[in-house]
Structures are given as C-alpha cells and as structure tokens.
Amino acid sequence: MIDKIKGLLKETEEFTVKTAEELENFRLKFLSKKGQISMLFNDFKSVPNEHKKLVGQEINKLKQFAQQKFDALNNSLEDDDTQTEGTDYTRPGEPIELGSRHPISLVRNEIIGIFARLGFTVAEGPEIEDDFHNFTALNFPPEHPARDMQDTFFIEKDPDILLRTHTSGTQVRYMENHKPPIRSIFPGRVFRNEAISARAHCIFHQVEGLFVAENVSFADLKQTLLYFAKEMFGEKTQIRLRPSYFPFTEPSAEMDVSCSICGGKGCNVCKYTGWLEILGCGMVDPNVLEKCGIDSEKYTGFAFGMGIERIAMLKYQIKDLRLYFENDVRFLRQFKSAY
Ligand code: PHE
Fold first, then answer.
1. Judgement on whether residues 164 and 264 belong to the same structural domain of the protein
2. Ligand 1 and 170: CB distance under 6 A
3. Ligand 1 centre distance from Cα of residue 275 (Å)
4. pTM of the predicted model as reported, rounded to 2 decimal places
5. Model confidence over 104-148: pLDDT tens digits?
6. Atom 5, ligand 1: which residue's CA is nearest?
7. What CATH number is given to the structural domain containing 124?
8. Nearest alpha carbon, ligand 1 atom 6
9. d(CA 8, CA 252)
C-alpha cells in the first residue's frame, strides 16, 4: 500500500496541464469522491493497526500535495486567461480618432462669421411657434396657402401651435423686444410637411437676417448681400436680384449667385443658366414693423433668408439632401475645417 501511495505521489508531481479540461481530469482522478485518494481512505480501513499511523500519514501527505498542486495549476490557468484578454500593457494603444464638424454646422458658422464682420449679432428662438409669430405678424392673410396642412406641421389647432416653417418668427420676437437700430441674424432648424427626396426634406436649416434703422434702403440690402456672396463663394462671384413675392417684404426679391463651378459659363449644376438661386429678401413690409411695435414712419428695414443645406450643397457639391441626416461617417469624415 505504501508503494501505491508513493506511485500516486509521483504521478501528481509529474502532472502538468495546459487546458481547463486537463485540470478537471486531474481533479477527477485524484481529488473527487470517486478518485484515487478517496479509494485509499477506503482501503485504509483494512490496514492492520500497527501500520495505520504510517500509512495514514502518507495518505494525508498525498492528499495535501494533490490539493496544493490543483490550486497552483488552477491559478496559473486563470493568469493565462487574463493575459490573452488584453492586460498586456506593452501592447500599442488603440488610436483615438478625431471627429469632424457636420457640413451644416460648418456653413452655419461661416455665415455667422461673415455677418458678424458687418456688425450683425446672433439670436435664436423657439422651434415650436404660435400662429401669431409664424404667420399673422408676418402679414400672412388668413387664407394664405402656406398656413395649409400640406406645408405646416400643426401640434394643436385653435389656437394654432406649430413647428415653425421658417425662422422669421424669431425676427418678430426680436423686434417685439428690441428697439431699432436692429442688426441681427437668426439661424435655426425649420420644419415643412414635404415628401423626402434628394432635393427636399421635412427638416432643414435657415439663417435669416434683419436690419432695421433710419434710412435703410434697398441699396444697403444689395450691398450687404453682395459682400456675403463674395465672402462665401469667392471674390469673382456676381449676384442678380429677381423680383419675387413674400407677404412680409415689399418689394421682395430672390437672389442668384453666378455659378462658382463653371464661373457662369453654364454646367449641369446651374442647369446651363450660369446662375444659382440662394436666398429670398426684401424691404420689411411697414405692416410687419407696426405689428411688432416699430414706428414705420421713422424706420425702414431689410430682411433676407437662406437655406443652409442649399448653400452647403453648392459649396461642397453635395448632390443629395438626405446625406445630411444619415450620419454616414464616410460622408461626414470629408469635412474638416477650422470652423
Ligand atoms: N422666410 C422666407 C422663407 O422661409 C425667407 C425670407 C426671409 C424671405 C426674409 C424674405 C425675407 O422662405
């Protein structure tokens, strides 16, 4: 029996394991209830009394040794595990990628920068508007089609609460709370109930501008917009104003810039006209000034409004409006700038 114990001791000493499975085999063979060591304790009962002391000591020695060996092997296996899971501090770090600004933010900031150089401040207003600020104060007659369900997302009816269809409501709020001279621009997100396509979206961004003071003329409007166009699209850019209609301006105009892609010669971006429409503008209608508490006998003003998506499309030659909202990093990564 002593020989058998010595043999098992040698076997446990020489045992090495590489996997958890091998370790489990070791445990089953030596340490489990039906393992070799348990069996030795069974056999121990039939050992003659005079040998019990010596044999008992040997079995206990074997049991202790086997248990220690099991614990040690178990620990080393666990250590190995954590090594492969990445606590190797000598490995090179993961690179941290720098983000880029969204093209809408870039162009928005650029527009703000250009008008800031002319002394325009920036003001923002609520995206959820009431009928008065979005329509009535802006001289929209009660039956004007822009109030229609097809254009406007209404939140509540009678009295009407809606998602603003333009940032002109912020101009009204600003005139209610400030005395002329007023020289501000109003960037913001606007909403229109339109089917989404490459050329239209139900959410987009605008920057509107307002200048109200004594003796403000159409010439001031034209010169301001010419400066803006040259700053935005390059020194060679020309502008042209076409008569138009808005309820809140009189006279009203739409402004085109000479196509920066073909230089006015004609290409598929400007549809071979040499011109690109970029904004609406006009002299603030005296009715609007009066509704906002400004004396229209004493003060005159001009206003303009442009879509940021449209300007960004022309600047970066983006062909599909939907790209702005998809947040595809392959698209977004292309815009890096100081702004
Ligand atoms: N509010 C007009 C629009 O959303 C733009 C505009 C603003 C036109 C100011 C003229 C003057 O289309």
1. yes
2. no
3. 20
4. 0.72
5. 999 999 999 999 999 999 999 999 999 999 999 999 988 888 787
6. 305
7. 3.30.930.10
8. 305
9. 103
CA–CA distance, 303 with 298 (Å, rounded to integer): 17
Do 322 and 198 lie in one domain? The reply is yes
Q: Are residues 20 and 54 in the same domain?
A: yes
Q: In ligand 1, which atom is closest to the CA atom of 206?
A: 4
The whole-chain average pLDDT of the chain stands at 90
Are 72 and 123 found together in one domain?
A: no
Query: Counting atoms of ligand 1 from 1, which one is nearest the CA of 284?
Result: 11
Q: Which residues contact 197 (CB under 8 A, 6 or more apart)?
A: 321, 322
Sheet architecture: strand order including 154-156: 128-130, 161-163, 154-156
Q: How far apart are CA 138 and CA 16, in angstroms?
A: 87
pLDDT of residue 80 exceeding 80, the answer is: no
Q: pLDDT tens digits, residue range 25-79? A: 888 888 888 888 888 888 888 888 888 888 889 889 888 988 898 888 888 877 6
Q: Which of 85, 118, 152 is the last residue of a domain?
A: 85
* Mean pLDDT value of segment 253-282: 89
Total number of domains in the chain: 2
Task: Give the mutation target among 139, 152, 167, 168 for probing the ligand 1 site: most ligand atoms within 8 A of CB.
Answer: 168
Given a cut of 90, is residue 165 above it in pLDDT? yes
Nearest to 184 by CA among 211, 222, 204, 207: 211
Q: Which domain holds residue 54?
A: 2-85
Q: Is 305 in the pocket of ligand 1 (CB under 6 A)?
A: yes
The rounded Å distance from CA 246 to ligand 1 centre is 7
The mean pLDDT value for 5-21 works out to: 84
Degrees to nearest 5, angle at CA 256 with 105 and 167: 45
Clarify whether residues 19 and 138 are in a common domain: no
3-state secondary structure of 221: helix
pLDDT of residue 150 exceeding 70 = no
Which of 85, 114, 145 marks a domain boundary?
85
For the cut 90, the answer to whether the pLDDT of residue 197 exceeds it is no
Say if ligand 1 is within 6 A of residue 303 CB: yes
